[in-house]
Design brief:
Length: 209
């Protein structure tokens, strides 16, 4: 069973993506997502973990949708081969000593054949762009500007689907760009956070327009 909430032109589901995905309309849609990587990640400062990250992630249920797609965590998923790559350079390399975590994150995409790079610092307390001064509420929360950049490759899409929406950054980006959004999140606390963030994004869009 799953819960469904509509907020403006966004539809959000609290439930298992494997259960919800088959029922979704995918007309003129693109899939932009940051799923569990299967690395059993634990946030160093809070001890927070990610639901489903304790076992290898099977990406085939996403690829089988046949949509224009961006999937973050490519370097952890052997099933993702060929086509393009999106690189997020996030370390303040010139300002910090070497650390145990990566200087960049990699996404797989079937929308381009090249490698494209996005630069925005997110290195501990050193953050840039729309991350400056923002309290992160999810262990792997992506910047909204980064997700807008990803969506920009889906030039024909009218709707963005994120089956592992976490705290809703993809949804906020989609709403800000005037697109429909469908998101799925299995963790109740993150789902509620997504609802609040997307509702705020809808309110801001209405105020702006």
């Amino acid at each position: 069973m799953f819960e469904k909430i509509e907020i403006g032109n966004a539809i959000l589901y609290c439930g298992d993506a494997l259960e919800v995905l088959p029922s979704l309309s995918r007309e003129q849609a693109a899939l932009i997502t940051d799923p569990p990587y299967g690395i059993d990640f634990t946030q160093r400062t809070t001890g927070a973990k990610i639901t489903g990250d304790d076992k290898p992630f099977d990406v085939l249920h996403l690829l089988s949708l046949g949509l224009p797609t961006v999937i973050w965590g490519e370097n952890y998923m052997e099933q993702l081969t060929g086509r393009g790559r999106l690189i997020w350079l996030k370390r303040a390399v010139e300002q910090a000593a070497p650390k145990s975590y990566s200087d960049a994150e990699i996404a797989w995409t079937n929308m381009i054949n090249q490698v494209k790079v996005y630069r925005q610092i997110s290195d501990g307390c050193i953050r840039g762009g729309d991350e400056f001064g923002i309290v992160r509420v999810h262990p792997s929360q992506k910047p909204i500007a980064l997700m807008k950049w990803c969506i920009g490759f889906a030039k024909e899409a009218k709707m963005i689907i994120d089956p592992y929406m976490g705290s809703g950054s993809t949804g906020v980006a989609a709403v800000a760009l005037g697109l429909k959004f469908t998101g799925i999140e299995i963790e109740r606390s993150h789902f509620e956070t997504s609802c609040k963030r997307i509702e705020q994004a809808q309110a801001q869009l209405c105020l702006y327009t």
